[in-house]
Amino acid sequence: MSAKPQAIVNCCAELYELPIVEFLLGQSFHPGGIKLTRQLASSALVSPDSSVLDVACGNGNSARIIAAGFGATVTGCDFSALNLERASVASHTAGLDHKIRFVRGSAEQLPFVPQSFDVALCECSLCLFENMDTALQHIRRVLKPGGRIGISDFFLNAPVPDSLDGLLGRVLCVAGAPSAEGYRDALTRAGFEYARIRTVSWTLADMIQRVRHRLKLLATTNALANTGLPADFGDPVPVLADLEQFIDSGGAGYLIATARRA
Amino acid sequence: MRHRPYQYYDSTVSICSTCLQRVDGKIVFQDGCVWMLKRCPVHGAERVLMADDIAYYKLARETFIKTPEQVIAPNTPARYGCPYDCGICPDHEQHGCTLLIEVTDNCNLRCPTCYAGSGPERQTHRSLEQIERMLDRAVANEGEPSIIQISGGEPTMHPQFFEILKLVRKRPIGHLMVNTNGIRIANEPGFAERLAEFAPGLEIYLQFDSFRPEVLKALRGTDLRNTHTRAIDRLNETGIHTTLVATIRRGLNDDEMGEIIDFATQQPSVRGVTFQPVQAAGRLEGYESGYDSARDRLTLTEIRRRILEQCPVFAPEDLIPVPCHPDHLAMAYALKLNSGLVALTGLIDPDFLINAGRATISYESEPAIREHFLNLFSTHHSVTSQTEAMSGFLDKLDSSPPDALDYSNIFRVLIVEFIDAQGFDLRSIRKTCVHIVHPDGKRVIPFDTYNLLYRDGLEEQVLEPLRNRDFVPLTGPISLARYQKPESVSS
Fold this sequence. Notes:
By secondary structure, chain A is an alpha/beta fold. Chain A contains ten helices and seven strands. Chain B is built from 17 helices and 18 strands. Classes of the chains: A alpha/beta (262), B alpha/beta (491).
């Protein structure tokens, strides 16, 4: 797969810090929301005994769901200091300090000793990383033998249309995503076994519907100009339409993948 | 505002684990686990782990629901209230998928844990006349019982063991199962051959708990490894369909389930493995400082996850609740191939199982599929009849597998969590479908309540006083102010 410039990765992290992004995408940020987080955690065998790493944990919403709903101990790791600050406050408010800790770090250089975790979750972020193979190898390194990885992400079966290859397309994690089989191959290359892929593209239709609805709300209230989005962000409305059409045509979709550290 | 440390899910009726008196209880969610809270007026409050997987617990209770199937006629009136009226009383919600006939109290082992309290010192064998009355009761209740399991004690110790099998065969009974420790099969030349005369439709339910001598000594009082090997060799030679049955005790053999499944798949005669956590009933010896429910109880969801961890050919969606009694039975089907097991959920359209998770398992639009699914995921199958059920089910789906698929290699993994006094939930006990025919030949009683209240002298010594007990007021609330998670769960 093609490497992505570090500038774009950094830019993504900064974009995710903007309140507008949370407003548009919802607290969970990723397609499928809380429901898919729960499904992913179940598929990766998260239990009250598990020590879970949430790679690119963002605002810590999934970490809180997993700590509160599954009783697991969670470590959230993210590149954005501001996100981690917010995540810490939210987990403190929720009374989950004893269950969750947050650590700043890059997925391609996870700051943990080997064999630290039972489960690693990577929601809608793997194809954002500069080098997916490096990230998977790092995740493998910090998992205990027999530990599980759970991924939710976009997959691509056709080349991305030009209109989606810009900054917004990147934020929506579309551009640069591998095919479903590409995930399986990458997991195998990184030393995982029993990879299982399940398509959950229904989550994308829900997501696009939500973003479109919220954009309409912003436009109606003339608030779209004050969102702090970069000038080169472009008009999101036609991008969404293109994305929807691309998904409908089978060009892209959403999946969850689980595998076991060999 | 003060908050509870839990989410309140449901109310329940339970029994006190000390005196077995009916008590009021709650089902709550806390720390990712399902707990039962209850209070006995005399023995105080209890907190019991029901499941360590809230999503699965809710899936079983709310989704895997089917219309209860009933016995032809109940045997006892509803008078004192559940569980003091067994049985089968008119308020039970499921017929007996599997009926046990205990033909003897005698056993050639004296296992430290035995829900029946059997042993070499007990010499009572039921007479053929009494066994006939028990079999006739099974037929009267069920019409054509799907499975009769000849059990004990050790049923092969009965001096007229083969006569008993003939009595079963004379009746309209689907499948004959023999629950045995395998000692006679292993040691007595020609014994397996005599058993094989009752095939097809005969299945051996073979005790097989571990590969480790210290575990076998703890569970069975003796190292049975050579016995296991010889018994399975005889069964392989004679081709008698066999299910391995492992009693699972926390911290003892709950790490061996994947290995047992692997071993089972390599034995030509073995068609499945059943895992049963120890039911806290009968003889419970061999525990350091005695049986401690907070430390030693093991729930279905814990066993299920350990199987998924140890046997990665199964994904979570492969090991699913059995609608007869969904929160206490879980089942997975697989194909046994030379290369190993292939989970059969892969052959079932995933949408089918996902959609099954939407509302209830009542596919009104697809009654044929529903019928075949319920038929397949039921305990009324022996490992022989499951082959036919699986082919029936798969053929009804759009994505029928190629004709070349050999259904005779169907392999089944089943988890059976019998209900003990600690985790007793009246809602659930009403759906139990493994029943024991009482030696009086007049009643059929759920396995779970039989071992708590009806076996041997329990009915007279424990049950009668409960039936006639005066009202005692509570001395406090069911919910205590603060609860700590037991070590065994939080570690």
